[in-house]
Amino acid sequence: MTKRYKILLGVLILLLGSLVFFEANQKEPVNWFPSYSNKDKIPLGTFVFFQELEKKVSNLEEINVPPFEFLKYGGIESGTYFFIGNSLMFDKAEAKQLLNWVDKGNTLFVASNNIGSTLLDTLKLSQKSRVRKNGLENFPQYNLVNPQLISDSLHTFQKDKEIVHFNEIDTLNQRVLGLVKIKDENLKEPEDFINFIEAPFGKGNILIHSSPEVFSNFFLLSKGQQYRYTQKVLSYLDMNAAHFYWDNHYSGGKTFNTSPLYILLNNKYLKWSYYFILIGAIVFVLFEGKRKQKSIPIRNPLKNKTYEYTQTIAGMYLERNDHTGIAHKMIDQFYLDLRQKYHINTQASNTNLISDIAHKTDHPYEDVKELIDYLQLQQQNTAISKEELKEINYRITNFKP
Question: What InterPro entries does the annotation carry (predicted)?
Fold first, then answer.
């Protein structure tokens, strides 16, 4: 390695070291992914809510299998089934199982921004999202409608987010429990939208909340006692129910990571050490992986000029119209091929020659005899015409020894 390369490598290593140092000391960005998992401590996880729920519910059970499987094969008993997630898309079979279970006198609680059309259509509901028309930030504000639960001040989610509400409900059978609005300082009375309803179903009850963020760590730990709103929402649930089932299948998905690089990349120090090793390997390939010897010149192999030579000789014969000479050369070449390819003695008597050719080339004896007799006759001919030359070429070519 030359002195110039060593200087460049030193500068590059210094720059990379500086980059790793500054990145390692930089604050990690806030993860706003809406997992709603009870294992996540990120803003939109439900770790705090689940911890508090465990204190209030004596028989809390986590369900890690799909609800269809649990309801059909798990021997589920009466109680409350709690679902929370950014998107809860129950299929037809799953929704049917859940509704049949609710019909027996149980409670289903669903909190999600996006609920599957199967459940919504069954309950004659539809969802819609909304943002401010005269501003950039959307701060949702929540309240309940029950006179005993309503708050004098609204509970605000201090993060820009669109609101999701129910724009169609079955007013004859369903009851509005809560409202949501977008904080707008320019309007004295912002419009209220329905985000929490109660839908009786058979002997049971279904509670649907379209704002799962009110159960998140961020909302519960925010200033202004926002947690009181969540407490009031839970007052519609029987905390002393025989069983309280918390769904983990939809609420946050899997709770473990199967990637072998998860631990390595999840720690910023290990992550940047890994990146530094990769960058160092690339630098080594660039500077040390160069060829250490002089390049070997390319020498093309000698070309086979036989074809060009044959063309030249053949052209000379054709220009002289020496059909006899060409014919004799073709016949001689035919016998040469027999000697080289099949090791046939072409000086033998006609009978032995014909038998030998027929045996080694798998041609009928009569065809071989006809060709040999014809070629021997032409060898004795001292004046071969152009047509006879063509005939000789045709017979030899079709014979294909």
Answer: DUF4350
